[in-house]
Specification:
mainly alpha
Amino acid sequence: MADGAQLERAFAGATVHDIFNLLSVAILFPLEVISHYLYHLTNAMLPDSVGDGEKWEGPIKKIVSPFAGRVLKANKDVIKDIATGKVENCDAYYPVLCLDGIEDYKHCASKCDTDVGEEVGVDCGRVGLITCDKDSGECPGFFQNGASLNDDYISGGVCLVLSLFLLFVCLMALVNVLQRGLAGMSTRIIYKATNVNGLIGIVIGAAITILVQSSSITTSVLTPFVGLGVIQLEQMLPLTLGANIGTTITGLLAAMVSDNVDALQVALCHLFFNISGIVIWYPIPIMRRIPLRGARALGRATRRSRLVPPIYIIVVFFVIP
């Protein structure tokens, strides 16, 4: 922005989110070290049927796994056996062998009972990096009887390329939808959000971020409005705080796909860290003015010197972490 006043307002709008996060870390990190309140709070919210470090099946994984299992299913025993020194490398699992040439879990992936003298190729099969599904008994599309280690490498590479391609297509489709439909809708919502209570603004900010799955999109849309003076900094703050909550949904969704309860606990810690920060810095007006004044001070410094933004980025995003 060439106009100094616009640059000052825009940089203040862009950094009020950072100031809030830094202040929250300054308060909550020592508190967590001393009391472990986030750990105890989130630990109490974990599923009762799952112990510490044990596995659980999230709702999203229940939906996705049957489809993914028809394409590729990784053999986790390979990593475990190599890590514990049971085998030296993956060569011990090849070539893949299915009894009687039948490709299903019973004939390919069922384990031998060495205590009763069962042998591979006679009483049980052998699978490599790709295995069959125990529940359904079926083998995935990329499973092949007689496959070598190189064959499984190629299968894994093909799946990786396909997944990256599908991810790219989905992201492009999301951007296209946002450009054509949500941009105007988000603008109208933002205009209305400037005239509502701060708590409602937090809810709107969270809803927009959940919709686009990125707090960066929310703040990027808001910053030019602040620079142009359409939205005041006081009106942007609750929207960015809502974006802080909305962005934790991504972590929660990822945790629901994971099969480890620790991932769910980390995602819950992220959520309650942001909620705790909001409780500290937003409801009380005198506390709310601290991040606002900090952001305005950075905005004024930027107007005096254009070196402030790059220095700020280096210090906050590279030096401090």
